[in-house]
Amino acid sequence: MQIVTLTCPNCGTVVSGNLLVETRSAECPGVDCAEILRLEHLSEEEQAVLREQPEQFR
Amino acid sequence: MLPGTVPTHSSPVGGKSHVDDQTETDIETVGNSMKGLVLAGGRGTRLRPFSYATTKHLLPLANRPLLEYIIENLKAAGITEVGIVVGNPSADVVRPHVGDGSRFGVDVTYIHQGEPLGLAHAVGCAEPFVGDDPFVVYFGDTIVDVDVMGRLVDRFDPSEHAAGLPLKEVDDPSRFGIVEMADDEIVRIHEKPDDPPTDLAYMGVLALTPTIFEYIDGLEPSDRGELELTDALDALVGGGEPVEYHVEDGLWRDVGTPTDVVETNRILLEGRERRVDGEVADAATVTGRVELESGAVVEPGATVRGPASIGADTRIESGASVGPYTSVGADCTIGKASIESSVVFDDVTVRKRERIVGSLLGSGTELTNGGDPEDGTQYVLGYDSRMTE
Question: Which residues of chain B have a Cβ shorter than 8 Å from any chain A Cβ?
Answer without folding.
Answer: 83, 86, 91, 95, 99-100, 109-115, 117, 121, 124-129, 216-221, 225, 227
